[in-house]
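User: Fold both of these, please.

Assistant: Here is the first one.
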Amino acid sequence: MSATAAHPTEFWHRLDDGRVQCDVCPRACVLKEGQRGLCFVRGCEDGAVVLYTYGRSSGFCIDPIEKKPLNHFLPGTPVLSFGTAGCNLTCRFCQNWDMSKSRQMDTLAAEASPKGIAQAAATHGCRSVAYTYNDPVIFLEYACDTAEACRALGIRNVAVTAGYVSPGAREKFFSCMDAANIDLKAFTDDFYKKLCSAHLDPVLETIEYVHKETNVWLELTTLIIPGHNDSDAELARMADWVVEHVGPDVPMHFSAFHPDYRMQDVPATPAATLTRARRIAMDHGVRYAYTGNVHDGAGGSTYCHACGELLIERDWYRLGHWGLTADGCCSHCGTPCAGVFEAEPGHWGSRRLPLAPSAMAEAA
């Protein structure tokens, strides 16, 4: 498949002046013939919006599901992760900028069909496929076709997304997913405008939609950036909103920032800041809060919100003590733990296994 092969898309409309408007995300890019949207991977060709990265990936890797991060969805199991190129946000602090900000389509892997990805996941014993590295919203058609192929083989689908998506595309995209980790980057519109060229409200709408209108298992992640989104007041407001609008059982992850991309003048997040964020969230009613990107056994483990007993011990991405019953309840007091669990945890551990693009072709 050529690097510039165009694939038809669904969410767009033609304007009276002959231009087209992409309706996948709130940016609503208006394009003339030959122009591309801010994401760079959707553009106008022959009077229609097309996708240029269908069937092309920036790489494949088998990860522990906890790395997404998802701590309450099939713990301990392997997930086949992949992404493409481009993004519909402009985050100055992007930690995957080499992929999400890429404009070099020829750096993408050779052909990787939806059926090939699904079969490769099955061949390698993966319980799910994750659409990640860059935001899958912008390669919606590729993600949804792959998800359909995965479901035919009994493989589940995981979205790792910023949630910056329009209502119609939102419904289509999440109907294909079984779990999602949504980036709640901060809790002020000013942060989104200055550092991401976006707005907060569409993200909050996506979070509410996923929780209330779908059966997708939901977790949230906030990358804590010193001096930008780490105040006690903002963290408290965020936790209060989560508890009020999506409930206390939605896990929150607070991850450490490291200087990268266009924010190399900002220091890395101290571990104590993540511990503080986790404590604030729990003090405000969040039952499951975690620290990430740091070695913190207590902050990475799951505890019963009723009796405090250890339910799932984690050392980085490796599981230890398992305190859940076969039906997902605390073995000490019987209180259910929110999530998607099986009778026993997986045993993938902390391994990271890159796969060559040829594995997709061979599987297909």
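And the second sequence with its predicted structure:
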Amino acid sequence: MEPFAYENQSYLSIKNWMKQYPGLTAGITTKNGGSSTGPFESFNMGFHVGDEKEAVCHNRNKLAELIQFPVKHWVGAEQTHGTLIRKVTSVDRGFGSDSYEDSFRGTDGFYTNKEGILLTLCYADCVPLFFISPEHRMIGAAHAGWKGTVNEIAGKMIEKWGEEGITPNQIFVTIGPSICKKCYIVNDYVINFVENTLVDVEEKPYNLINEGQYTLDLPKLNKIILLKAGVPAENIQMTKLCSSCDQFEFFSHRRDQGKTGRMLSYIGWKETSE
């Protein structure tokens, strides 16, 4: 079953999670319904891509209204395709929300069990990972391009949560819209890293198509890594949406040849009034 459902032209929600876990808001934006122009048309969420800052702030404020989660409660990152994951508390709110300069440096994952914090990350083909452990009220998000994926950022989130006393079978993961295997052609250099990551895994998420050229299924590779980390298969749900195929819905770094906007993934517990 497709976990993501359109709320309107500007964003999709993880419907089944939001229904199961009252107070949760989780989803990803599209490219539509904003005020950016040119290659960033129109709902660009990335400060770092060369768009007008004013337009990005306008787009972020619009999303904040749509999902009813104030921008000053968001956290954002300077994503570097690494595996640094940061635990976020209330004092961190607002960092990276309305400017790139004060975002968390070199960070590609966030987690928290506090209410009133929206964990946000930007994408244009990389894999958005959403994590939740309902009984511990823990939520998380990770940005997994090929580098983050082969360095097992997905597994590192499971490890971090293990340090919090959360076992893999208590964790649920949603794998969001990213580039699909038929759109993602890579070379031997990338596949060597993939091979090293999957030493003990029989099922390979890539196919040779020409000499030195492979299609790589990045979402599936993340799923394999999550399974390896102990997350049960039934706890993992994946979208069928592709950032590159769905050109009217999503930005794609590869399809748009590097000059494009960014979607924003978000997950947070809304504050409950006492």
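The chain has a mean pLDDT of 97.
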